[in-house]
Amino acid sequence: VVTGEVFDYTSAIRQGRFQTGLLGLHQIENAGMAIALLDTFCQEVGRKLPANILIAQALEETRWPGRLEVVSRNPLMIL
């Protein structure tokens, strides 16, 4: 099974282990930026920070069809 990238995230207000739904090490940086922006937005507008479980679910479910998409596992074929 081909999965996304697993990473640890730590900031002043959140820490956790997350996994992206997209392949590529650069997705760790993208996901970390998305988490930081979400937390900053929530603080700025006075909203409660989403639980790590919700963020983890959203990151894992992220897909970009046709970009490093696994179309076959035997033999392994990636678009």
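That was protein one. Protein two is written in the same sequence-then-structure order:
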Amino acid sequence: MGEPLWTDAHAPTLPEIPQDDARDRLERAIDEPMNLVVHGPPGCGKTAAVRAMAREAHAAPDNDFLVVNVADFFERTKKEIRNDPRFASFLQGRSSMAKREMINRVLKESASYAPVSGDYKTLLLDNAEAIREDFQQALRRVMERYHRNTRFVIATRQPTKLIPPIRSRCFPV
């Protein structure tokens, strides 16, 4: 491969996160694995902060840190989701699935795999304000089932759009 992308080469480290409260909570989450809701306005660094935490928390972040942008599901057709290389292996031979079932399957499969290094992996659901309530109910069940080996991080601009059972299972950042 060639040079790393500029955004990867200059990505902030956890100590460089300027918001003291957010940095302290993310550092605490490394030692005490917990589900998180990271919230703030667009462009404030929610995703960058979670990526910095994952790089410190995992010996193999390329394997134990997965980002799912919610818009990748809710703003695409079923065919586009099925043909996306990140999701294709989870959906092979399942052409008659509803979009909600496709999303649920990708999350269940992603959460069920054992971490490559360490005790847990991190699954970031980015731009979570787009998640419909019926899907949030399914997400809650996935979070409950796979809490032993998967930490769920939900990044959103509007935490009030998350159902109370999800908010109650997550530490706010």
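The chain has a mean pLDDT of 90. Keep this in mind for the problem set.
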